[in-house]
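Workshop exercise sheet. Pairs work together: one partner reads the sequence aloud, the other fills in the structure field after running the prediction. Swap roles for the next sheet.
Pair: D.N. / O.F.
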Amino acid sequence: MTVEQNERLTRVGPGTPMGELLRRYWHPIAPSAELDEENPTKEVRLLGEDLVLFRSTKGVLGLVEPSCPHRKANLSYGVPEPEGIRCAYHGWLFDETGACVDQPSEPAGSRFKEKVRIKAYPVEELGTLIFAYLGPEPAPLLPRWDMLTWGQVRRNVVMHMVPANWLQCMENSLDPVHFEWLHRNFGAYTAKRLGKEQEAWLSNTAERGLHHQRIGFDRFEYGVIKRRIITGETEDSEWWRVGHPVLFPNVLREGTGRRHGFQYRVPVDDTHTLHVHIQVFLPQDGDVLPEEGITEWQYKPVYDENGRIILEGIIQQDILAWSIQGPIMDRTTESLGITDIGVIMYRRLLNEQMTIVADGGEPMNVHRDPANNECIYLPQEVSVYPGDTEIGQRWKDVPLTKPQLEATLE
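Structure field:
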């Protein structure tokens, strides 16, 4: 790969090929509960652009450029009002569309405010997350993925600010083999060094940490389905027959049993990624939950007090792998092997979709038909979905097919 090719895949700022592609999609930028009466504003950086998120006293969300156009005061210190956010410096008031709706120091009858507008982007809430869209109008529909629409569930949202380019996080998801090394072997080594029970860690990761015999990948309408066969499994295993998706361009679906998870790799800028991990837990028998469900959320640090990456679990080990490749990985000197066929497939897909956008077209996995956006069910192996009575019920009739791309690793 040349320097130019690597730049094309990794740079996400305005006007870059990848930045223009990523601006065609909605990205989570905060938990809904983070913006409340005590904290009605939040500074946000997304796709290399600094913005201010706010919630008006009527509950309306807005996402605007940070500087008031009057004397450039930062609107993150603005005062929320029913109509929007009022600048702390001279009181200019802006609504969620960026329109200036009040200038208290201008003469009565002045129409000057009609000439003033700041940049604003659409924001929507779904599944206890706030999503933003920074692309051209008209904005597509915010995809109503199944687990984001379910009521009466427990949700847990954990966010990390990862000091690495977003693509390093995503390529990891097209690399199933890393589980047996990073999570099982390195995880056990780390557990021992931390004074924890090494055998307990090996037992915890045994399900997916054994040797990978085959890996497979399929392109589908929303991205890529990845499959695997590990030691002791056959093609009848749901891990091979059903698999789970990597949603284009930057979301991993994962989970088993009653746990369903999304990992959003949100491109903050070229060298930082907001990792948003939302897990949805279906209630057990007898577990009565309110209609809106129960949600917990938190931001977690990446580093400990000694400046070392925290390695307490699977996500933290992934963050280690992403970060130790450097802020932007140098792909010009990498040596790819047979286990990297999914990574290669994903890079080709990214380049294909960037070209579509550059030619004026619409990329894959952009949703505009409300009739097909009520609840989009996604495959997830060995799992329980609402209404199921047993594991694997929803996808039990999926026929065994040969992957579009596969590799035998024995």
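Discussion prompt: The CA atoms of residues 214 and 229 lie 5 Å apart. What would you look at next?
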